[in-house]
From TrEMBL:
The keyword Membrane applies. InterPro entries: DUF7034 (IPR055462), DUF7035 (IPR055463), EGF (IPR000742). The lineage of its organism: Eukaryota, Amoebozoa, Evosea, Eumycetozoa, Dictyostelia. Residues 1003-1014 form the EGF-like domain. Pfam families: DUF7034, DUF7035. Residues 1-22 form the signal peptide. The chain crosses the membrane at residues 1268-1290. The keyword Nucleotide-binding does not apply. Keywords: Membrane, Signal, Transmembrane, Transmembrane helix. This is EGF-like domain-containing protein. It comes from Heterostelium pallidum (strain ATCC 26659 / Pp 5 / PN500).
Length: 1311
């Protein structure tokens, strides 16, 4: 059958007219049968005689058609036009894949391949399924030739499903029928028995929510035995399956989570070969009335700032962390949070305010909205209309995966942002590669996917957009984009899979005592370009994600992953997806439909528990109404948690106050357990209140519960308090009154202790860098802040932050750091993103709070009025290339592809220098292709070393980028040297506590255990934020104990053979490059040059979210999840003597704000000395910072012995205490010729058991805190007896008058 065909094209015309044309001048075209789009490009005209107009035409196959219209009484005729291309294609089915049942969606899936013209629109295929009531079909486009067909169950299913399911497929006016095999796992009536059906909150109830936008998560759990069916529901969100989450020998558990902010009702069904109603669920929600006042927007022109400053002010009657949504054209939507209000305790008014920058030529609307109110502003401009000239648009194929679009533009007003196909947008400051924002060359990189007509949108700062598609003329020279996007497609789909296999396809845990089993997946595609993509492999229903690494030796992808025993038995659902652009996502069911059984991954005899921990009870401690009476104490909650069989591991929760926007974040685990065991236990979660606090109400929110599981299940629950929603509302909140009670003969009276200070702190000094060049490698801004509070003093838990607000993107929040031990002075340095903002950057200060919770923010206008810096002048130059990363290259050589910034666009003005690190030394190479962010060189020849060093030089400015290291694949290292196992660097009894193997570098622990003796567990820390120098800081809140750890590169020393310092190099300025976009993990590169030398030092800080293995030299290093790795590279250094050594000094510190803490340090070495340590560990109670140091570096391309020495400096400013520990480690390497590479890593741990030989330093005289004692108990029997005795004693004391004091002391010490 031949389907009907149309031709689509753009017709561009240039007019000379006495007046400016508009779309209305062409409105009479519709009377002639015209049904396309009309665009009058008024913003690209140069005068009345050159007016560009574009029409999109649609002509039926073999038709001839003409269009006529009148402009200014002059007649025009266009045409005739005919469509002579081939028809849409013969409607012939070339291939149909195997039908597969998708266990996640409960749908059947098959893939159809048709012989369609590749230029056709890919969305003309539809389907119907009328022959089987209760089934429906859906078609999803893969590309113009390939389509997914889904068969979906509905709750109207009333009869048996046939073995072959007929489906009608329609293509325009043509139709055909296909058959889909019935692969549903149930072909007859079910034997399923529903044992329990529970919902949280219970059905048929009414509840009151705090706000109209509050989300209630409705949980429905079905427990069934002898299961031979599925469970699903029909409600506002359509047909939703109940995912399987728990399996044992007799029953299954299914869980459905339905978030809602309104009334909710749905029906549940059991479905086999028919659908059977099992229950109805409905709840009614009544939001509390919200008295939300509309904010006020105002603006003024500021000549010093060089633009408009918009001021927003919200006078509120309550304190909360508002989420302010900002909308302004063109298409700029932002969100601002964490704004501390100015508190007027006398009038009970809390004023939120902030400043926003707008360019002076802006002409349009501005809005700041909250869920129930908004403020709106119209900003007119009296300046001339926009005028833009697009000289040239080029689109280049720069890799197998990507295009780069280059725009040469002159504009009356600065270019604001550029978008390609609406999905790939860059702010103009980021995309500028040559010239300036008014007259420059801009580039946008975007993926090579199917574009019929690629659309380009260019916005200027006046709020004007010029839009055109690739076939349209974009200037009065009638130029169009010269690129065939249809044939440039390169995205793969399931039909491109060439090979696919698992090293183990059946995972049988009955044959293994391990908690996990390692598996390798090998696969490849017919397309040769897929190695350019960032592919990830994920075990669905979990957060376990593993990178797919391309093996250039075998020419295939390889995924090394593990399957935990907690996974559900049966076929494992997984998917492979492209992570950089989100271009494709291949579900395991899709893959199986193409490759068959080779895609199966099956689990046998597993634990089968992905069900979340269940919160069953909440009780406020000591009560839901606490009177401090001017005495500090601990308050909190008892949480009863059930989880079986895995057991509860740890949890986090936020405590919010009605008098403070900053939540108190708490973590709890088995050390907080007062009764029970991991399967059913009660945990006391609390925090310490100072005696100066004001009367306030605390409330639990954002509870996260995690079970003991390597699977890291995706629980679907956002807040685990949903288990008890509406049940323990009174116990979730604690009213704390700072009062004094006294008795008379008749009455019990209560006096509120009023705050002694009603005035928030003030800024006495504020400084920020006045100007920064955001096009250079050095984009650091410095801050200094001094506060003044005359009465109660500043809060130590509220650290001020600066808000840097650009005119074209989200503001950046930067937390300042206290200066030493003072609470009133703060400083900080921050590196701005490349190209940040369009013009100048507004600065404001927030989070200023005293001990009585008086708070305020300083907007930019407040800072200006106080005489302080309130903006940063933005400069932008492109003089120095910034090199960030490179595409992999083999030892056979070839063209180098380099990525970075500020490369320019002229290839003859660039040179690439390669240091081979062998006898060839250094060589310069010409560039074949250059864009602002991508360089491709000529063939660089063979590579003989394990690493090469590369930099880029601008021949115009004679400026050189920093060096990067490139590790070629296929490199075969020399055989490793044998080493003997050390005897005393593996603590524990026996060594590594039977949870790992003792190796020359320390204990290699089994999964879930880590630390020097395998008695600790990793703490998941947030991704470190970039700093202006190579340092990382991590804050861990554990009840009232806030522990901060820091790692920093301090200095570089040259020392002699007697360890005497010859010279010291302090590094004050670093060039920062964020490499995260080009890496699988967050990665920051810092480059500098040692003063008085030509030696460059590069420090790369990489954060590994998941456990992984990396290769360094000859060794494979296991990096724990949530670890920070430092990679240090030093270029040639001129040693004073050849016998001297070079030493890189790293400092690791850990610090607590809890005065009752205890601290300790440990290190491991072969002989017990500090001269060659393998690891260090510093504790604050049970929290620790753990660093590992390998004993070799890559020195002049060879693995070479180095030493890691603990340095005892006598001039340290801060000595060790019960709250502070610091260790400096000197990584010491011998003299070298060309290059040295070093590779330590660090992680934060929580101790489960601790060696009794550790010496703790505590504040209390001659004693340890309870937290330290709990961690130092030796042996399972002794530990068990102490815990039981403590629990019994605690239970008895709960009834005594001394409970408050004892529990406060215990809780304060255990944190």
């Amino acid at each position: 059958m031949v389907a009907e065909s149309f031709c689509f094209t753009w017709l561009s015309m240039l007019f000379s007219a006495p007046t400016m044309l508009s779309n209305e001048d062409f409105s009479n075209l519709s009377d002639k049968g015209f049904s396309g789009n009309i665009q009058v490009q008024s913003n690209v005209r140069s005068d009345l005689d050159h007016q560009l107009v574009s029409l999109q035409l649609m002509v039926r196959y073999l038709d001839n058609i003409s269009y006529s219209f009148n402009i200014s009484n002059q007649a025009f005729t266009l045409g005739p036009f005919s469509c002579s291309r081939a028809p849409l294609g013969v409607f012939t089915l070339l291939n149909q894949s195997e039908t597969v049942f998708d266990s996640l969606s409960y749908k059947l899936v098959t893939v159809l391949e048709y012989d369609f013209n590749p230029e056709n629109p890919p969305n003309l295929l539809t389907c119907t399924l009328d022959s089987v009531p209760g089934l429906s079909c859906q078609i999803v486009v893969i590309d113009v030739r390939h389509y997914f067909v889904y068969v979906t169950l509905m709750t109207t299913l009333v009869g048996p499903i046939p073995a072959k399911i007929p489906i009608d497929i329609y293509y325009v006016s043509s139709a055909m029928q296909i058959e889909v095999d019935n692969r549903f796992p149930f072909l007859q009536r079910s034997t399923t028995i529903i044992d329990h059906l529970n919902s949280y909150p219970p059905t048929a109830q009414s509840f009151t929510t705090d706000t109209p936008e509050e989300i209630v998560e409705v949980i429905t759990v079905v427990e069934a035995s002898d299961v031979s069916s599925i469970f699903m529901s029909i409600g506002p969100d359509g047909y939703v399956p109940y995912p399987l989450a728990w399996v044992n020998d007799t029953s299954n558990k299914y869980i459905r989570v339905s978030p809602t902010s309104r009334n909710l009702t749905f029906d549940g069904y059991e479905v086999d070969n028919q659908a059977v109603f099992i229950a109805n669920y409905n709840i009614t929600l009544f939001p509390r009335p919200v008295n939300e006042i509309n904010g006020v927007l105002s603006y003024y022109n500021d000549p010093d700032f060089g633009g408009i400053i918009v001021e927003y002010q919200l006078p509120a009657t309550s304190i909360k962390n508002y989420k302010f949504s900002l909308q302004r054209n063109p298409g700029l939507n932002l969100e601002i949070t964490d704004i501390q209000p100015y508190i007027d305790n006398v009038q009970a008014v809390y004023t939120y305010n902030f400043s926003l920058p707008i360019l002076s030529e802006y002409n349009g609307d501005f809005a700041v909205t909250l869920p129930n109110s908004g403020a709106y502003l119209s900003i007119p401009s009296n300046l001339p209309e926009s005028l833009m000239t697009i000289y040239k648009v080029d689109v280049f194929i720069v890799s197998d995966a990507e295009f780069v679009a280059r725009f040469n533009i002159t504009s009356r007003y600065p270019i604001f942002k550029i978008s390609v196909s609406t999905m790939y947008t860059l702010n103009a400051g980021e995309s500028l590669v040559y010239g300036d924002l008014n007259n420059g060359i801009f580039e946008v990189v975007f993926p090579r996917i199917f574009y019929k007509n690629c659309q380009f949108d260019i916005f200027d700062s006046r709020n004007t957009k010029v839009s055109f598609t690739s076939p349209q003329a974009y200037n009065i020279d009638m130029m169009v984009v010269q690129q065939n996007f249809t044939t440039a497609k390169s995205i793969v789909n399931v039909y491109d899979i060439q090979s696919f296999r698992f090293s183990k396809s059946v995972i049988d845990f009955s044959k293994s005592s391990s908690k996990s089993i390692n598996v390798t997946l090998y696969f490849n595609f017919t397309s040769s370009n897929v190695n350019a993509f960032d592919l990830q492999f994920n075990l669905q229903n979990t957060s376990l994600t593993f990178p797919a690494i391309y093996n250039y030796s075998s020419n295939e992808f390889q995924v090394n992953f593990f399957v935990p025993t907690e996974m559900l038995p049966g076929e494992v659902p997984y998917h492979i997806y492209e992570s950089k652009y989100g271009l494709f996502d291949m579900q395991s069911s899709f893959i199986k439909s193409i490759v068959g059984q080779a895609a199966n991954l099956t689990i046998l005899h597993s634990v089968g528990d992905l069900f979340p921990p269940v919160l069953t009870n909440i009780t406020a401690y000591p009560s839901d109404n606490v009177m401090l009476g001017g005495v500090a104490q601990t308050i909190g909650w008892y949480l009863t948690i059930e989880d079986s069989p895995n057991g509860f591991d740890y949890g986090t929760v936020d405590v919010i106050s009605d008098m403070d926007i900053k939540p108190i974040s708490l973590m709890f685990n088995k050390l907080n357990r007062t009764t029970g065991n991991p399967n059913l236990g009660t945990y006391l979660v609390g925090f310490y209140l100072e005696n100066s606090t004001v009367t306030q109400t605390f409330k639990l929110t954002n509870l996260k519960l995690y079970e003991i599981s390597l699977a890291k299940p995706n629980y679907m629950l956002v807040d685990h308090l949903s288990w008890v929603f509406g049940k323990y509302d009174i116990q979730k909140s604690i009213l704390v009154e700072n009062t004094i009670e006294f008795k008379t003969n008749i009455y019990l009276s209560k006096i509120i202790i009023a705050p002694i200070d009603l005035t928030p702190p003030e800024i006495s000094l504020f400084y920020c860098t006045p100007a920064v060049d955001v096009g250079s490698p050095m984009r650091v801004v410095d801050f200094k802040l001094v506060l003044q509070d005359n009465l109660v003093g500043l809060s130590s838990t509220h650290i001020p932050y600066v808000l840097l607000t650009p005119d074209n993107a989200d503001p950046i929040k930067y937390q300042l750091q206290p200066e030493g031990k003072t609470l009133n002075a703060f400083n900080g340095s921050f590196s701005l993103p490349f190209g940040f903002s369009t013009k100048n950057i507004l600065v404001s200060v927030h989070g200023i709070v005293d001990l009585n919770l008086n708070s305020r923010s300083y907007t930019s206008t407040d800072l200006k009025n106080a005489g302080f810096n309130y903006f940063i002048k933005r400069n932008f130059t492109l003089n120095t290339p910034i090199l960030e990363s490179a595409r992999p290259i083999s030892t056979d050589g070839g063209s180098l592809t380099l990525f970075g910034k500020a490369f320019g666009v002229f290839r003859d003005q660039l040179s690439v220098t390669v240091n081979y690190l062998d006898q060839r030394g250094t060589k310069n190479f010409n560039v074949n292709f250059a864009s602002g962010g991508i360089i491709q060189t000529v063939d660089i020849g063979n590579i003989n070393a394990s690493v090469i060093k590369v930099h880029v030089t601008s021949l115009t400015t004679n400026k050189q980028s920093q060096d990067i290291l490139i590790y070629p694949y296929n490199y075969i290292p020399p055989p490793p040297k044998p080493t003997s196992n050390p005897s005393n660097i593996c603590p524990g009894t026996p060594p590594c506590n039977n949870r790992g193997d003792c190796t020359p570098s320390g204990c290699q622990c089994q999964a879930s255990w880590t630390g020097p003796s395998c008695s600790s567990q990793t703490i998941v820390i947030p991704t470190p934020t970039p700093q202006p120098d190579p340092s990382t800081g991590t804050n861990i809140a554990d009840n009232n104990n806030n522990v901060t750890s820091m790692i920093n590169v301090v200095e570089v020393r040259e020392i002699d053979d007697l360890d005497q310092i010859v010279q010291t190099f302090n590094i004050s300025q670093w060039n920062f490059t964020d490499q995260s976009k080009s890496m699988n993990n967050p990665s920051y590169l810092y480059s500098s040059q040692l003063e008085r030398t030509t030696t460059n030092i590069n420090v790369t800080i990489t954060y590994y979210q998941n456990q992984t293995n990396i290769t360094f030299g000859e060794s494979t290093l296991n990096i724990q999840a949530s670890s920070i790795k430092y990679s240090i590279e030093l270029s040639k250094f001129n040693f004073t003597k050849s016998t001297n050594l070079l030493q890189v000094v790293l400092e690791a510190t850990i610090k607590s704000n809890n005065k009752d803490s205890c601290s300790s340090t440990q290190f491991g070495s072969e002989d017990g000395s500090k001269d060659d340590v393998k690891w260090i560990k510093m504790n604050i109670d049970k929290l620790s910072l753990y660093g590992r140091f390998i004993d070799f570096g890559i020195i002049d391309d060879k693995p070479t012995k180095i030493t890691n020495r603990i340095i005892d400096d006598e001039d340290d400013n801060e000595s060790d205490s019960s709250q502070f520990r610091s260790i400096k480690v000197g990584i010491t390497l011998p003299a070298y010729d060309n290059i040295a590479l070093l590779d330590p890593d660090f992680s934060n741990l929580i101790d489960v058991e601790t060696d009794s030989s550790i010496s703790y330093l505590c504040k209390s005289k001659g004693g340890l805190s309870n937290g330290a004692i709990a961690g130092i108990v030796v042996g399972g029997v002794v530990f068990l007896s102490i815990v039981i005795a403590g629990s019994v004693f605690l239970h008895k004391r709960l009834k005594s008058d001394r409970e408050d004091k004892r529990m406060s002391q215990k809780l304060r010490a255990i944190k």
